[in-house]
Design goal:
It contains 11 helices and 17 strands. The protein is of the alpha/beta class. Bound molecules: nicotinamide-adenine-dinucleotide. Nicotinamide-adenine-dinucleotide binds next to loops.
Length: 350
């Protein structure tokens, strides 16, 4: 067996911890180095994970010749520069969502990927959820026929992060659209077969976060430096005639005080489906009967770990990126169009 691919992780505080088990479990990888600009976080995670090569400069880790995979888990604003530097240094790159906050950034990342011949993957872990994979297999097998409409939302009643990395345009690039909208939008487009988006009408709101005493169960008081939306809604048209209604929020007087309401409905000419309940809804016109079928989840496992393992597997087997940046470009193009539409009050052609 070939020597394991050496993994270096950049930004090792929050979500990175869900990647570590995947790199440890994969038969193809060895997690050998960490980088973080916060020396305390770096030291603590190095000790906790038994990783001894620790870099306060991500550029130094990227320059290390023996590293094969760079895993980027920093705030959004650093995804593009770090990914591009790593691709130029000849590394494969997996990068947390959003791949980058703007379509222009992602286009540059794709250019660097093309020049490097390496793989670039967005860490959209919901694609590796067992229920989502079971539903996707049904859809790909034709269970819904032609999917002509979808409704999806990711709504939290009081679930706003409050750090600058999430609630400032400078570090995050946007609010819940960019943070959680990318999850449900990526999953929905993937289920629909990634049709090409052509127009979007959208709005954003920042009403509850501006109220005196506004707070989040996830992060405490809404900070003064918050300059992003708290809610967004959109109507998207695709080149194949399909449509999508999307709603996202961190702060909304909507059921589920803790946690979130994340759902997707898909409607095709042969059937409908709901995720995460994984129910297929069909109609038999001959017998005049409606039928609801519960899908079985065939696969367990923690999806963040599974996405890392899938990336390593793709590299070793010479397959393409499990979540290609071109698909993330469509996600961010829709969200950037949503922002533009909200600002102008008009439908935007993408
Ligand atoms: N897939 C998911 O479910 C999910 C969940 C949470 C966060 N995320 C994404 O993960 C990313 C990080 O979020 P988080 O919650 O882990 O944040 P975090 O603040 O907990 O951790 C980020 C770490 O990156 C470090 N860092 C910041 N800039 C850096 C730089 N230029 N170079 C090296 N290190 C740097 C920080 O010191 C910090 O330790 C974001 O892009 C976010 O959208 C994804």
């Amino acid at each position: 067996m070939a020597a394991p691919l050496k993994v270096g992780v950049i930004g090792v505080r929050g979500i990175a911890r869900t990647h570590f088990p995947g790199w440890k479990e994969s038969p193809h990888t060895e997690m050998v180095a960490f980088a973080d600009i916060n020396a305390d976080v770096l030291k603590a995670q190095g000790e906790a994970q038994g990783v001894t090569r620790l870099y306060e400069s991500p550029e130094e880790l990227i320059a290390a010749p023996d590293i094969d995979i760079i895993d980027i888990c920093t705030p959004n604003a650093y995804h593009a520069p770090l990914s591009i530097a790593a691709l130029k240094a000849g590394k494969h790159v997996i990068c947390e969502k959003p791949l980058a906050p703007t379509p222009a950034d992602i286009l540059q990342m794709i250019e660097a990927r093309n020049a490097s011949g390496k793989l670039l993957m967005t860490a959209q872990h919901f694609r590796f959820d067992g229920a989502a994979k079971a539903l996707k297999a049904e859809i790909d097998g034709g269970a819904l026929g032609d999917v002509y409409h979808a409704r999806s939302w990711m709504l939290r009643r009081s679930g706003a992060p409050t750090s600058a990395g999430f609630v400032t345009k400078q570090h995050a690039g946007g609010g819940p659209c960019i943070d959680i909208g990318v999850h449900i939008l990526d999953l929905t487009l993937w289920m629909m077969g990634n049709p090409k988006p052509v127009t979007v009408t959208g709005i954003t709101q920042d009403k509850l976060s501006k109220l005196p005493g506004a707070f989040s169960n996830w992060g405490g008081p809404i900070p003064d430096f918050w300059d992003v939306e708290e809610f967004a809604a959109a109507f998207v048209r695709f080149a194949n005639g399909a449509t999508l209604v999307l709603e996202v929020s961190w702060l909304l007087n909507h059921p589920k005080t803790h946690g979130e309401d994340m759902q997707m409905w898909l409607y095709g000419d042969k059937g409908g489906a709901h995720w995460p309940d994984n129910v297929l809804l069909t109609t038999n016109n001959a017998t005049k009967q409606h039928l609801d079928t519960q899908l079985q989840n065939k696969e367990g496992g923690e999806p963040h770990a599974k996405e890392c393992m899938a990336f390593a597997e793709a590299i070793v087997s010479g397959a393409s990126s499990p979540v290609p940046p071109e698909q993330s470009l469509d996600v961010i193009t829709i969200l950037e169009g949503l922002y533009r539409s909200g600002a102008t009050g008009r439908e935007v052609v993408l």
